[in-house]
Amino acid sequence: MALLSMLVVGLLSMVASVQSSDPLEKYTISAPGINATFIPYGARLTNLYVNDKEGNPQDVVLGFDDPADYLRNDQTVHTYFGPIVGRYANRIKNGTFTVQGVTSHIPQNENMGRDTLHGGKMGYDQRNWTVVSANSTSVTFSLLDLGFEGFPGNVITYATYTASSGPRWTSRLVSLPLDEPTPIMLANHVYWNLGAFTDTTGSTVLNNTLHMPYAARYIEIDNIEVPTGAIGTVKGNFLDFTSPKQIGRDIESAINNCGYNCTGYDNAFILDRPRCSAPESTDLSMLTLSSNSTGIQMDIYTNQQSLQIYTCDNTNGTIPVKQSQQHDNGTTYVEKYGCMYPSRMSSDMKGNFHTDNEEPLGIVIETQQWIDGVNHPEWGQDQYQIYTVDSEPAVVFAQYDFSIIGEG
Questions:
Q1: Which of the chain's termini has less CB crowding within 10 Å, N or C?
Q2: CA distance 172 to 303
Q3: Rounded to whole angstroms, what are the CA distances from 381 to 26, 29, 125, 174, 374?
Q4: pLDDT recorded at residue 356
Q5: Which of 180, 211, 366, 376 is catalytic?
Q6: Is 189 an annotated catalytic residue?
Q7: Among this protein's residues, is 378 annotated catalytic?
Q8: CA dist., res. 359 & res. 333, Å (int)
Q9: Which of 110, 180, 189, 376 is catalytic?
Q10: Starting at the edge strand that comes first in sequence, how are the strands of the sheet with 34-39 ordered?
């Protein structure tokens, strides 16, 4: 116990020291074919460049040129561009859960106080993380969570981001509870567009092709996107991405799928790995995303058992995409009301989707465990979501491999 107290004191000193550092300072890592930039505010990915089919570097994630805009955004529309979300990602019904007989109440920051989203009013995405180590290929951030937002106990988390040849980006999130039992479920909340806004078809993620071969089941939700407890199957409906298809192909059928009066995708897909693998194995690609505009393909390998797929931007139509993504003469903006599918959409002779004003959409892919599993013991998720001082740490591993379509 004395050793634990010394550790906590040391961590407190470390957290105090970060207050005088710059949470908006950029840290860039690189390897052949990849270049990524992060800031300590939210341990956030701000840029990720990979080469397209012509050999030109393209920034394939949404965000801002000025790091200060992330703070301004969090005080307004709060789109969660690029950070780690936690201590518990996604939604908690009624902001309430019980662990080992102790009930906790977390601020309910969504749907007029009916649930908690991404850890409460001030989650990990709005915290200033400490830079523990940084070099040309890797950067590590840490955060000491002193019971933030009413979660039980104290938790220390380390986030290590690495760039390597491939090209590849690897994210490792390791969390250790320091005293009390607690739920822990972190996720990277990155908006992707592999089309990188290079042309009209690349300006909307609807033209990206998505493939999740092991996602034959999903968690059913109510009209505020909280799980009902039921498990559905995707076969034969608009949620079926077990074979490759364009994101826009069936999206018009996804009515009320992402909440009441919302058309789009915001769903937790369950990853059922084959018998030759294992529940937390990282040997198989769980998701492939690609763009014909750039030729860029991304494969995700993860130890998590669910993927949250979110095609909504939740923006107000005034946010321009980054300067690196302005390929036309005019300024391109992130689409207003990304949760609402464009009221008028058409496809050309090549099967590419277009909206009236060609404004872009991004897709968020959250590698995580089952949404609100802390409130559904019947799912058997406790061993993956509840952690103690004598349990294994909570580890979220995600590997993003980039290639050119047809060359992998």
A1: N
A2: 10
A3: 37, 35, 24, 18, 7
A4: 43
A5: 366
A6: yes
A7: no
A8: 6
A9: 189
A10: 27-31, 34-39, 44-51, 57-59
Q: What is the pLDDT of residue 295?
A: 98
Residues of the chain with pLDDT under 50: 1-9, 11-20, 313, 336-346, 349, 353-360
Structure-token match 């996602």, residue found = 215
Q: Tokens representing 77?
A: 């529309």
Closest-CA residue to 288 (of 408, 385, 118): 408
**What's this model's pTM, rounded to 2 decimal places?**
0.91
User: What's the one-letter identity of residue 296?
Assistant: I
Establish whether the linkage from the previous residue to 87 is cis, with ω within 30° of 0: yes
**Amino acid (1-letter code) at residue 374:** V
> DSSP states of 314-359 as a string?
-B-S--BPPGGG--SSSPPBPPBTTTSPPSSEEE-TT--EEETT--
Angle at 191 between CA 344 and CA 157, to 5 degrees: 150
Backbone angles phi, psi at 247, to 5 degrees: -60, -35
pLDDT in tens, 160-209: 999 999 999 999 999 999 999 999 999 999 999 999 988 878 888 889 99
